[in-house]
Amino acid sequence: AAGTVPRRRPRRSDMGRELTLLLLPLALLAAPARAEGGTAAAEEVKIEVLHLPETCSPKSKKGDLLNAHYDGFLASDGSKFYCSRTQNEGHPKWFVLGVGQVIKGLDIAMMNMCPGEKRKVTIPPSLAYGQQGYAQGKIPPNATLIFEIELYAVNKGPRSVEAFNQIDKDGDKKLSELEISHYLKEEFARDGKKRHPSAHDEILADIFKKNDHDRDGFISAKEYNVYQHDEL
What we know:
two-stranded antiparallel ribbon; calcium; glycoprotein
């Protein structure tokens, strides 16, 4: 949500929550942001590249896991309605590109972007919050939005074939609790953050609760790939 929303003190069950992004989708802007139907096809995102590094690789694509900072402004008066640097102790935001975790305009605006690149993008209402606006984020109806974006990292997304195969050690095309448990332990060790001993079990249970739809004790390739309409 917008920067004015106070952040609660993390509970123990939140410890290590960021790692569930490896298997579960998270929202960047907590709002029901979708393009409105019946809009003019001529409306599109305008992109201005402010900085392009000499080395531009890899370029972002649908399904990639991105790390970025961004500021949001109303085009009508230039007022700022969002600043990622004032959220989460100033850490850049992680999200999966092109799967609806952010407004449609941002999904479009950040395609084919490389680490270190900066862009200024203008997003029409039809690709942002439409006719209803977003009162909680101080965005009025039919608002054109401007975002200044700085991209830091482009990684393979959590729902990619590569990610699935990395977890599926025995290659049987389904993920067991043991395989996901091992993967979580590796990720915990890799980022080096201190967590309560119960964090691993809580995250593992949450993953299976939300992904093992047929309750057979495994997460199949179909269950894992929640973005089944993608080319992942």
